[in-house]
Amino acid sequence: MRLDKFFTHTGTMSRKECAQAAKRGRISVGGKVVTDSAVHINENTDTVTLDGAVVTYMKYIYIMLNKPQGYVSSSDEPGEHTVLELLPENIVKCDVFPSGRLDKDTTGLMIITNDGPSSHRALAPKSHVCKKYRYECADALLPSDAEKMRAGITLADGYTTLPCELEMLGEKHGEIILHEGKYHQIKRMFGAVGNKITALKRLSFGDILLDEKLEEGAWRYLTDEEIKIFTGNK
Ligand code: URA
User: Fold this and answer.
1) In a mutational test of the pocket of ligand 1, which residue from 69, 132, 185 has the highest number of ligand atoms less than 8 Å from its CB?
2) Is the pLDDT of residue 234 over 80?
3) Residues in contact with 55: Cβ distance below 8 Å, sequence separation at least 6, in sequence order
4) For residue range 202-225, what is the model confidence (pLDDT) as tens digits?
5) Is 130-205 a CATH 3.40.190.10 domain?
6) Mutational pocket test of ligand 1: of 187, 193, 197, the residue with most ligand atoms within 8 Å of the beta carbon
7) Residue 135 C-alpha to ligand 1 middle, in angstroms?
8) Does the domain formed by 3-54 have CATH 2.60.40.10?
9) May I ask the CATH architecture of the domain 65-124+213-223?
């Protein structure tokens, strides 16, 4: 693999930045300074350093984004801002995509990766990865309606949802944990009891929790522990 590709793949810097860093003698491979960013290296066996710090090659990129409102979670939708616009270009170039969907007006935890097989596995119904959301609704939720949703409720299209956990933290807000992910599911569940969601934020994806330190629109790489959870290697 070319040295500059190695650096863009690890999300460390762009090709141009890599070329500049190499020229300035900031990069070494196997203990020797390398000034040409086009050289080929073995990403699995060579020790590569930038400013003396070892950079580890990762086949895939895993990102946690705190999605703000107003961004769609598909990779490309004409006329819309997509969540990928919130990431640096050198990461987007690595063919990353959002793992799963959140509505344009939903905020919170999104995982963005280029690991197709793991994303597919995590989203497959048989993986039973639960997702937790904080909701706000327009009208006071009746405890009897909350109970209907917990038990599984029939939506307008005839689909009956799986049982879920719903904790009312007030008349018009609370937390809900889904064990499936149908299109607009929470909005349609509240719609089925004559109520309306006014705000929705995803707090967790399985055991991966939204990092409270991430402002809306901010992102970070998943930790090794979170990657293990996401990829199922745990
Ligand atoms: N349910 C919804 O209705 N919207 C989301 O974005 C996620 C779950």
Assistant:
1) 185
2) no
3) 6, 7, 10, 12, 48, 49
4) 999 999 999 999 999 999 999 999
5) no
6) 187
7) 10
8) no
9) 2-Layer Sandwich (3.30)
- Which is the closest atom of ligand 1 to the Cα of 101? 6
DSSP secondary structure, 85-145, as one string: GGS-HHHHTTT-EEES---TT-EEEEEEES-HHHHHHHHSGGG---EEEEEEESSPPPHHH
Report the pocket of ligand 1 as residue ranges, CB < 6 Å: 102-103, 106, 184-187, 200
Distance linking the first and last C-alpha atoms of the chain: 29
Cα torsion 7, 87, 181, 146: sign: positive
59-92 pLDDT tens trace: 899 999 999 999 999 878 889 999 999 999 888 8
Q: Residues spanned by CATH 3.30.70.580 within the chain?
A: 65-124+213-223
Nearest CA to ligand 1 atom 7: 102
